Amino acid sequence: MTFARAFAACILTLVLLSCGEQPKKSHDTLVIGMTQYPATLNPNIESMLAKTYVLAMANRPLTHVDTSWNRVCALCETLPTLENGLAKPEKLPDGKTGVAVTYTINRNAKWGDGTPITTRDVAFTIEVGKHPASGVADGELYRRILKLDVKDDKAFTLHMDRLTYDYNALDSLNLLPAHIERKNFADPKEYRTRTAFDTDSTNPGLYFGPYRVTEKQVGTRIVLEPNPSWWGKKPAFGKVVVQIIENTAAMEANLLSGSIDYIAGELGLSLDQGIAFAKRHGEKFDVTFKPGLVYEHLDLNLENPILKDVRVRRALILALDRQAITDKLFEGRQPVADSFVNPLDWIHSKDTPKYSRDLARAGALLDEAGWAKKGVDGIRRNERGERLSLELMTTAGNRTRELVQQVLQSQWREAGIDIRIRNEPARVFFGETVTKRKFTGMALFAWLSAPESVPRLMLHSEHITSARNNWSGQNYTSYANSEVDRLLDAIETELDREKRRVLWARLQKIYAEDLPVIPLFFRADPFIVPKWLTGIAPTGHQDPTTYWVENWGVRQ
User: Fold this and answer.
1) Which CATH number covers residue 461?
2) How far is CA 392 from CA 149, 209, 299, 307, 375, in A?
3) Which of 184, 291, 463, 537 could form a disulfide with 194 if both were Cys (CB 3.0 to 4.6 A apart)?
4) Are residues 157 and 210 both part of a single domain?
5) In this structure, are 69 and 114 located in the same domain?
6) How far from 128 is each of 51, 64, 371, CA to CA, in Å?
7) Is residue 101 a part of any domain in this protein?
């Protein structure tokens, strides 16, 4: 090429760039920004959305809920039902009714090292789940399995100790590779720290989804590449990088600079940031606000003598103007929560007690609870001169939660309540502080759920986490109410929908009266998608979009 032609080509390139016509970027690698790093990659230990988001690209449970809110098979071939005969009620020796449910693992399913996924993996996973020292999050599921009948390498029947309305749900049964993990389970008490998912995370034999983990930098990023043993639709990207950026303002800057391609809608920008982003950059991105079953709340440590008193808990919620919070921060798009049940869910009860701000009632309750004196600083004190002071924690770097904290702190101060804010990185906050109930006062975070999801792990007294059960369960508040325990049992085994609705209404009423948790609002997550990226379908429930990552692609 002559110098004149080369110079002309350079000028043309500069003109195109100045006009906004960027040269086409290769989209073989997809870089996803996410605000949290998983505390573990073991699919059955801990309950953290960041982990589910990543593992949904590399593993699948037996069943899960689809984008239409219907339960479907993921790893199994046919969803068992009473109608198709794959689920059958059976009488138990104690006279109660159980159920036998038969599943068949996908005949083509293999681990990433080529080892077939078989009923041996099912048996091993159940063995781990049943051991009281294993520390699995959903120990309740495994306690309910009375017996496993293996029919062949792929088909098995589970005999369950009760017939529930969701009898065919195995959403929490994530298979473990027996050929890799058995040696790590030699000492069950040490399994949490020895699992290969954390000590040998790039071992291909741990994964069987469209992608597998090929690189891990703790706290920073996780890299996934196509899994050659995957039997389904071939994924479009040669590499998926999940980049952890805990500060949401920095996350937005990285998106605009092109350092990341897409922000995980489930764990990315907050609603207020999404609204502002859409106004400034809506022409370059497709912005969708997906309301769903994401419940932002405050878990209370009920072993704290202050919070043990229900009068204090009621005063705390009466001192808040939660509607003002959602109006000012979220343009009213995130409805105030009266309980853990979203109005989008059919089980929602309109008769649940509601709380609006009433400082006079809050003050009277605090007086009654023994916090009647006020110091020169305006903070209430008891007869011993102790200040009414509580610690409030959340995930560091989440700008919206930190804003919410500041508003809560200000509103509670008007009622004479001192709030001390202390935050931690998400992997420490969830992996240690919340799971092991190390927070002394209140923990601000979100629960995600599926439609009509029984909150047994969060509310039943059997699931209070402790060192004794190796921190299994999710009752981080240490809430114990015998009527709530009975209702949780009754709801699950009531097959009549209308009778179940009555039980749900009673549960929501008790929850709102007892307030083991202070409800804040139900989230609407902003999905900010570059116009070239296709296939992302927000679900509005606990199962993230990455369960369908093989359907993502590049717009032609």
Assistant:
1) 3.10.105.10
2) 48, 39, 10, 13, 21
3) 184
4) no
5) yes
6) 19, 21, 48
7) yes
Token look-up 């009948």 returns 149
**Tokens 């202390």, located at residue:** 422
CA distance to 117, 125, 363, 412, 506, per residue, from 51 (Å)? 22, 18, 42, 34, 33
pLDDT by residue, tens only, the chain of 556 residues: 443 444 334 333 333 333 333 334 568 999 999 999 999 999 999 888 999 999 999 999 999 999 999 999 999 999 999 999 999 999 999 999 999 999 999 999 999 999 999 999 999 999 999 999 998 988 889 999 999 999 999 999 999 999 999 999 999 999 999 999 999 999 999 999 999 999 999 999 999 999 999 999 999 999 999 999 999 999 999 999 999 999 988 999 999 999 999 999 999 998 889 999 999 998 999 999 999 999 999 999 999 999 999 999 999 999 999 999 999 999 898 999 999 999 999 999 999 999 999 999 999 999 999 999 998 999 999 999 999 999 999 999 888 899 999 999 999 999 999 999 999 998 899 989 999 999 999 999 999 888 999 999 999 999 999 988 888 879 999 999 999 999 999 999 999 999 999 999 999 999 999 999 999 999 999 999 999 999 999 999 999 999 999 999 999 8
Domain boundary among 130, 150, 185: 185
Q: Which residues contact 137 (CB under 8 A, 6 or more apart)?
A: 44, 45, 46, 47, 172, 457, 472, 473, 474
Distance CA 281, CA 304 (A): 46
CB 86 within 8 A of CB 63: no
CATH code of the domain containing 237 = 3.40.190.10
Question: Are 296 and 302 spatial neighbours (Cβ–Cβ below 8 Å)?
Answer: no
Cβ burial, residue 326 (10 Å; 0-12/13-18/19+): buried
The verdict on 487 and 542 lying in the same domain is no
The size of the chain, in residues, is 556
400 in any annotated domain = yes
Structure-token pair, residue 46: 């801990």
Q: In 3D, which of 439, 485, 424 has the Cα closest to residue 458?
A: 485
Same domain, 537 and 474: no
- The residue written with tokens 């296709």 in the block is 534
End-to-end CA distance of the chain: 32
What is the span of the domain harbouring residue 313? Answer: 292-524
Q: Which SS3 state, helix, strand or coil, does residue 410 take?
A: helix
Question: Within 13 Å, how many C-alpha atoms sit on residue 321's CB side?
Answer: 13
Same domain, 331 and 462: yes
DSSP 132-146: TTS-BTTHHHHHTEE
Rounded (10°) angle between helices 399-414 and 248-257: 150
**516 contacts 300 by C-beta, under 8 angstroms:** yes
User: Greatest CA separation found in the chain?
Assistant: 93
Q: Are 241 and 54 in contact (CB under 8 A)?
A: no
Helix (H) or strand (E) holding 323: helix 322-330
Asked if residue 337 lies in contact with residue 521, where contact means CB atoms within 8 angstroms, the answer is: yes
- Domain identity same for 263 and 323: no
